[in-house]
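User: quick one, sequence for these tokens?
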């Protein structure tokens, strides 16, 4: 199973450019968590101190608005979530609901700090990769907002105008 986990991390952009030894060390520090379908990995506004790499299953990223949860996207094996809270140390910006039974590799801020102490260059690479991933997601969100406005729905301006 460790080999499969290592290969999973090696395929992920967030861990691109990292040495095998660093990834093995990170895996040795990490926790494997199981979440049953219908339960949450975490909820919006929870404090976050870790990111997750989905090993099995499927999750929904949902955001609450006026008492209802709205689907932002679905993630599958090999996707990661929770890295924003690791980077900015703010509460979770959305909830993550397991749509089916899931297992994930949980990587905490403390785990990342141990990488920092061991090899600052590898730690820097992880931070840069997380920044790139968050930037890709921001670009995608910007494009969705733009398309919504251009198509004349106007809902985005209404949301931002009154919050």
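Assistant:
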């Amino acid at each position: 199973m460790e080999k499969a986990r290592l290969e999973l991390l090696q395929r992920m952009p967030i861990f691109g450019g990292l040495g095998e030894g660093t990834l093995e060390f990170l895996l040795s520090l990490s926790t494997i968590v199981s979440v049953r379908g219908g339960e949450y990995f975490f909820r919006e506004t929870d404090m976050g101190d870790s990111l997750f790499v989905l090993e099995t299953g499927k999750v929904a990223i949902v955001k609450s608005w006026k008492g209802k949860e709205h689907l932002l996207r679905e993630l599958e094996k090999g996707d990661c979530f929770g890295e924003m809270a690791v980077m900015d140390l703010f509460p979770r910006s959305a909830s993550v609901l397991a749509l089916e039974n899931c297992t994930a590799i949980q990587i905490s801020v403390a785990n990342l700090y141990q990488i920092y102490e061991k090899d600052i260059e590898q730690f820097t690479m992880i931070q840069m990769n997380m920044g790139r991933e968050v930037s890709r997601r921001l670009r995608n969100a910007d494009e969705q907002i733009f398309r919504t406005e251009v198509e004349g729905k106007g809902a985005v301006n209404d949301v931002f105008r009154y919050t």
